[in-house]
Amino acid sequence: MTLVSEPAGAEHAEPAAFGFVTAPVAISLAMLVVIAIIIWQRVPAAIAKALDDKIKLIRDQLAEAEDLRKEAEALKKEYEKKSKSADKDAAALLERAKHEAEEIVAKAKTDAEALIERRTRMAEGKIAAEERAAIDQLRATAAEAATKAAARLIAERHDAASDGKLVDQAIKEIAGR
């Protein structure tokens, strides 16, 4: 075995498969394949559907809260009608009924707002968790696909002879240090 010494500063041509597929081109092609698989498997559509379902759930909860508010308003109106039709002799009773009605409305409004806020936060938390889960699943799927593609490319491009050359080259480099 003879060692060929090359002049200092000599540049080597970048390794390329088929004369034009360099490492960046191969990586770009692999990424295009991964993106095509993601689009082909309709991952964005699944994420959009999950988000649309969450939005519908939040809208339903907001509609429910609106119904609760309307019920509270109806209750307030009912007490106001009762207070208007009361006898003048029951002025104290009328005043107490108005006060109770206002407290009930205020409590109902406070409770409804707290319920809306609590449910909104819960829904936002669920949406965020679903988004994180979808992103994590997407990343895991992409990593798995990239790993399989890399393993397949390595297996296709390396045979026992090329592996032996790589080992011999590595030994030469280590011995040269």
Brief description of this entry?
This protein is mainly alpha-helical and 177 residues long.
How would you sum up this structure, described in words?
The protein is mainly α and 177 residues long. The chain has a domain at 32-140. It has helices at residues 23-40, 43-84, 91-157, 160-176. The longest helix is centred in the C-terminal third of the chain and has 67 residues, at 91-157. The chain is rod-shaped.
Rg measurement, Å: 36 Å
Globally, the shape reads: rod-shaped
Q: How much is the average pLDDT?
A: 84
- Poorly predicted ranges: none
Distance between the termini: 18 Å
- Number of helical elements: 4
What is the multimeric organization of the chains shown? Answer: single chain
Secondary-structure class: mainly alpha
Name the descriptors.
177 residues; mainly alpha; 4 helices; 81% helix; 0% strand; rod-shaped
Summarize the topology.
Layout (H helix, E strand, L loop, with lengths): L22 H18 L2 H42 L6 H67 L2 H17 L1
Helix pairs in contact: 1-3, 2-3
